[in-house]
């Protein structure tokens, strides 16, 4: 399914071109969980797309930043991302995996726990750093998959 999603995004990954790049997801998760907004945003390309579990799309780093600011102002998230597969071909790459996140309201109250899958479509910036071009999330139904 991940390969289908990558192909649909216009990315071709030949097995010979696969690499083992350092995972972006766990690094992003550590900064997100620590509420380091500037460091979290440094992972995104300027024209990045953030696709929420309901399918809505947030387009562009400024809009993604606004969403992140709102979420972090009201909540204390703790997320772990576990890469399952990843690869690169030229300036494009992907990472897919599972996540587990607990979100506690900043003003107190019951925490909510989520699990699901993620897909990062990556591009290389002019400095060679891998950047998130598109980030997609699913949320497992209550009771798990």
Describe this structure in words.
With 145 residues, the protein is α+β, with helices and mostly antiparallel strands. The chain has a single domain, classed as Nuclear Transport Factor 2, Chain: A (Roll), CATH 3.10.450.50. It is 24% helix and 42% strand. The protein is built from four helices and six strands; from the N terminus they run αααββαββββ. The protein has helices spanning 2-8, 25-33, 37-41, 61-74; strands at 44-51, 57-59, 75-89, 92-105, 112-124, 130-137. A six-stranded mixed β-sheet has the order 2-1-6-5-4-3. The longest helix is centred in the middle third of the chain and has 14 residues, at 61-74. It is globular and about 45 Å long. It starts with a helix and ends in an 8-residue tail after the last strand. The model is unreliable at 1-20 (pLDDT under 50).
């Amino acid at each position: 399914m991940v390969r289908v999603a990558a192909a649909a995004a216009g990315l071709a990954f030949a097995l010979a071109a696969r690499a083992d790049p350092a995972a972006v997801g766990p690094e992003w998760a550590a900064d997100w969980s620590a509420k380091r907004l500037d460091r979290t945003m440094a992972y995104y390309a300027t024209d990045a797309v953030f696709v929420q579990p309901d399918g809505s799309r947030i387009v562009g780093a400024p809009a993604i930043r606004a969403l992140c600011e709102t979420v972090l102002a009201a909540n204390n998230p703790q997320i772990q991302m576990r890469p399952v597969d990843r690869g690169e071909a030229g300036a494009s790459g992907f990472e897919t995996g599972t996540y587990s996140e607990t979100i506690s309201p900043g003003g107190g109250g019951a925490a909510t726990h989520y699990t699901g899958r993620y897909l990062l479509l990556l591009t290389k910036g002019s400095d060679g750093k891998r950047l998130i071009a598109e980030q997609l999330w699913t949320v497992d139904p209550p009771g798990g998959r």
